[in-house]
Amino acid sequence: MKVQTKAQLRFLRMSPQKVRLVAGLVRGMKVKNALDQLQFNSKQAALPVKKLIESAVANAIHNDQVKVDTLKIETIFVNEGSVLHRWMPRAMGRATPLRKRSSHVTVILTGEVDETKKKTEKKEVKEAKIEEIKKEITKKTKSASAKATADKK
After folding, report:
1. Which residue has the higher pLDDT, 142 or 137?
2. Among 80, 87, 76, 65, which Cα is nearest to 35's?
3. Nearest 5 degrees, angle CA 5-CA 61-CA 43?
4. Which residue of 3, 12, 41, 82 lies most exposed, with the fewest beta carbons within 10 A?
5. What residues does each domain of the chain span?
6. Per-residue pLDDT tens for 100-121?
7. How far is 78 from 109, CA to CA, in rounded Å?
8. What ranges in the chain are assigned the alpha helix state H?
9. d(Cα 9, Cα 107) in Å, to the nearest integer?
10. How many other CB atoms are found less than 10 A from the CB of residue 128?
11. How far is CA 24 from the centre of its chain?
12. Is 36 exposed, middle or buried (0-12, 13-18, 19+ CB in 10 A)?
């Protein structure tokens, strides 16, 4: 069964135009190949994107019990974040605007679920929940019957 896992990096203080160059390199790759590609890339945006992909892999393993070798970068996109407006002093008393841009990067990974782990965990959780519910019901019925007998006396 295929599962999608998502991770976001928000307010990265780097221009979206520069981050999109790096994101385009790894789009559609297997995770292992993408991490190797980013490790040896000289662009400054490679490090934050690499960390984001590693975070998405950790999410996939922890939350969805996905096999690591099946993970693939399905989509990666970069949106504009907030812009800090600053001023640069220029000649003859003038000033020109500076726009310090930020980015929001989103990665969506797909991979196959490790069925053996998933099934055993679900059964254990269901059994524990059923036992808790039974305990609550018996407590309520005992307290209700105790109140009824106390009211009759």
Report:
1. 137
2. 76
3. 65
4. 82
5. 2-88+95-113, 115-153
6. 999 999 999 999 998 776 566 6
7. 15
8. 16-26, 31-39, 46-64, 115-152
9. 9
10. 10
11. 19
12. middle
Residue 107 CB contacts under 8 Å (≥ 6 apart), including other chains? 6, 7, 8, 52, 53, 56, 73, 75, 76
The architecture that CATH gives domain 2-88+95-113 is: Alpha-Beta Complex (3.90)
The pLDDT value recorded for residue 117 is: 67
Q: 39: which 2 tokens?
A: 């490790």
- 68-77 pLDDT, tens digit each: 999 999 999 9
d(C-alpha 59, C-alpha 138), whole Å: 39
Are 69 and 113 spatial neighbours (Cβ–Cβ below 8 Å)? no
- What tokens does 70 get? 């099946």
* Residue 144 identity: A
At position 70, the amino acid (one-letter code) is T
Query: Terminus-to-terminus CA distance in the chain, angstroms?
Result: 61
More confident residue, 90 or 130: 90
